[in-house]
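Hey, can you fold this one?
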Amino acid sequence: MSLFMYAGVFERDLLRLVPDAQVLAMDFSPGAIHLAKQRAAEAGLQIEYRVEDLNEVKIEPHTF
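Sure. Predicted structure:
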């Protein structure tokens, strides 16, 4: 069973529960990000996706 079947499911569920949330999701897999973007678009949800190595990601202070 492929993990790609879950691509973006948590982000989509979050926006369904909290429609005014701003969601940023990151993964190291370009394939997973591509699929998650597709599924979010199909659901009409605005989610920002980035391909990132979470060991190296740079996040501006006070962003979250």
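The longest strand covers residues 24-27. Let me know if you want another pass with a different chain boundary.
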